[in-house]
Amino acid sequence: DGGITQSPKYLFRKEGQNVTLSCEQNLNHDAMYWYRQDPGQGLRLIYYSQIVNDFQKGDIAEGYSVSREKKESFPLTVTSAQKNPTAFYLCASQQDHSGNTIYFGEGSWLTVV
Amino acid sequence: DAKTTQPPSMDCAEGRAANLPCNHSTISGNEYVYWYRQIHSQGPQYIIHGLKNNETNEMASLIITEDRKSSTLILPHATLRDTAVYYCIVRSTGANSKLTFGKGITLSVRP
User: Fold this and answer.
1) B9: which chain A residues are within 8 Å (Cβ-Cβ)?
2) What pLDDT, on the 0 to 100 scale, is given for residue B98?
3) How far apart are CA A110 and CA B36, in angstroms?
4) Which residues of chain A are within 8 Å of residue B91 when distances are taken between CB atoms?
5) What is the pLDDT of residue B109?
């Protein structure tokens, strides 16, 4: 089935360690996004990418990094510079045409211990 | 991209219609209105979207005012499983456009 796959679903990290969250889509979508959600809050944009080998900072990019070497993959690295990384992370994609549906993955829970 | 304003919460009785409002007074001509919902700890689920005409699908109807400055999502027969946070989003179609989510509206469907 087509869709967006995020892994892992749950991840624990020690302070000071980098961690990479995976996002893969087989929808042939051009645009991909990473969002962060804190409890009881809306979604905040971290990074987005409209095409391969290009990405843009969102509203809260500090402490995060991304890459877009392949169309179907958009991994997010949470670095040790991110001071409060415990959150729910959501990946999304959209075909880069007007009015197309935006699809979300099921999310990844990251907890710093 | 234009921002949206939604009330923080509302409730309705099971079986009745739920009308969820959204204001987007700064929307521009090439921006679509999208609605999503999110059940706790899951990814947002697409509901419906539109540009200027009213839209209907198997889940809901979207009513957009003629000046496009506001819209209403209608769930015709709400069920308990419709309890969720509903997000109204506007997005342009230009290069480097992005999705901007607000806090959404929490809909509680009561038995």
Assistant:
1) none
2) 67
3) 23
4) 102
5) 97
pLDDT tens for residues A87-111? 999 999 988 655 577 889 999 999 9
CB atoms within 10 A of CB B6: 22
Any idea which residue has 């997000």 for tokens?
Answer: B87
Distance from CA of B80 to the nearest CA of A (A): 20
**What is the mean pLDDT of the segment spanning A9-22?**
93
Q: Looking at CA atoms only, how far is residue B14 from chain A in angstroms? A: 24
Q: Is the minimum CB–CB distance between A10 and chain B shorter than 8 Å? A: no
Q: What distance in Å separates residue A35's CA from the closest CA in chain B?
A: 10
Considering only CB atoms, A105 lies closest to which of B43, B87, B96, namely B43
Beta strands in chain B (DSSP E): 9-13, 18-23, 32-38, 45-50, 55-56, 61-64, 70-75, 84-91, 105-110
As a three-state string, the secondary structure of A4-62 is EEEECCEEEECCCCCEEEEEEECCCCCEEEEEEECCCCCEEEEEEEEECCEEEECCCCC
Q: What percent of chain B has pLDDT over 90?
A: 72
Residue A8 has pLDDT above 90, yes or no: yes
Q: Which of residues 35-54 of B touch A (CB under 8 A)?
A: 36, 41-46, 49, 51
Question: How is residue B110 annotated by DSSP?
Answer: E
